[in-house]
């Protein structure tokens, strides 16, 4: 680890955590394509996730201050599928992070989901409990590297007929318990990492925080202007490239 990798990984985490292109898929891809690249230690990974979590809190600070009990219940119901999947299949999911098999196909699936978001007819202004559970199932499936969490949840929401911006907001807020839960599982398995200079944690955190905050705005812009297909094109091209090269 050096300062370059700390900044690079922070930027990648900040961008891909919320832009629907799969942060976990990109990490697996980098491990297999970039000479000398090693997955950072658990503590550094937790720091980057805390940065993107901070970005969500800051971006939605006004919404969170006025959040209703009903909305908290919706988030709780939406969290259940991923929580169960993470608890019971944690080791299996961890094994997937070291595998390149099927990653290209999963990027293609994410690309297809993104391509279909723009054409969905959305009429519902509110999210029901069954809606939140269905979106939660999509989030659980997206634990698989290459399947984007934000892409899968937003696609599911708009296909249920929910307003695009409402779905995007729900997806981002649903990431709060998801990120916290993932970090807790990582810390449970934590063993001492190689020593990293404290400044690397700081620059990684700041890089992920800034790019994470900006990427939330980008997703909102693209979903308003119905340009989600651009994320789809990127993922499809990346999927074919992964299949051909690897």
From TrEMBL:
Which keywords does UniProt give here?
Antibiotic resistance, Cell membrane, Cell shape, Cell wall biogenesis/degradation, Hydrolase, Membrane, Peptidoglycan synthesis, Transmembrane, Transmembrane helix
Transmembrane region(s) = 42-60, 72-89, 95-117, 167-188, 200-222, 228-245
Q: Name one GO cellular component term.
A: plasma membrane
Q: What is its EC number?
A: 3.6.1.27
**Catalytic activity, per the record?**
di-trans,octa-cis-undecaprenyl diphosphate + H2O = di-trans,octa-cis-undecaprenyl phosphate + phosphate + H(+)
Gene Ontology biological process terms in this record: cell wall organization; peptidoglycan biosynthetic process; regulation of cell shape; response to antibiotic
Broad EC category? hydrolase
Q: How does it sit in the membrane?
A: Multi-pass membrane protein
Q: List the Pfam families hit by this protein, alphabetically.
A: BacA (PF02673)
User: Where is it located?
Assistant: Cell membrane
Main location per UniProt? membrane
The protein's GO terms of the molecular function aspect are: undecaprenyl-diphosphatase activity
> What else is on record for this protein?
Bacitracin is thought to be involved in the inhibition of peptidoglycan synthesis by sequestering undecaprenyl diphosphate, thereby reducing the pool of lipid carrier available.
Family, per the entry? Belongs to the UppP family.
Q: What does this protein do?
A: Catalyzes the dephosphorylation of undecaprenyl diphosphate (UPP). Confers resistance to bacitracin.
Protein's name in the database: Undecaprenyl-diphosphatase
Which organism was this protein described from? Candidatus Woesebacteria bacterium RIFCSPHIGHO2_01_FULL_40_22
């Amino acid at each position: 680890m050096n300062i370059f990798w700390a900044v690079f990984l922070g930027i990648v985490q900040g961008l891909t955590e919320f832009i629907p292109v799969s942060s976990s898929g990109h990490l697996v891809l980098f491990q297999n394509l970039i000479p000398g690249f090693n997955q950072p230690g658990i503590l550094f990974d937790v720091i980057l996730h805390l940065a993107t979590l901070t970005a969500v809190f800051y971006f939605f600070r006004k919404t969170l201050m006025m959040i209703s009990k009903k909305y908290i219940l919706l988030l709780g119901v939406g969290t259940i599928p991923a929580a169960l999947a993470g608890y019971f299949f944690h080791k299996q999911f961890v094994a997937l992070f070291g595998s390149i098999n099927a990653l290209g196909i999963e990027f293609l699936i994410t690309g297809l989901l993104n391509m279909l978001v723009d054409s969905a007819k959305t009429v519902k202004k509110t999210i029901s409990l069954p809606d939140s559970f269905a979106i939660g199932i999509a989030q659980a499936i997206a634990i698989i590297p290459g399947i984007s969490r934000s892409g899968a949840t937003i696609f599911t929401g708009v296909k249920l007929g929910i307003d695009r911006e409402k779905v995007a907001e729900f997806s981002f807020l649903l990431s709060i318990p998801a990120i916290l839960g993932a970090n807790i599982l990582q810390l449970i398995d934590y063993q001492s990492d190689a020593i990293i200079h404290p400044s690397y944690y700081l620059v990684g955190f700041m890089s992920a925080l800034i790019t994470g905050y900006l990427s939330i705005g980008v997703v909102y812009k693209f979903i308003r202007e119905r340009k989600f297909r651009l994320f789809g094109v990127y993922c499809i091209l990346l999927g074919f490239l992964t299949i051909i090269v690897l």
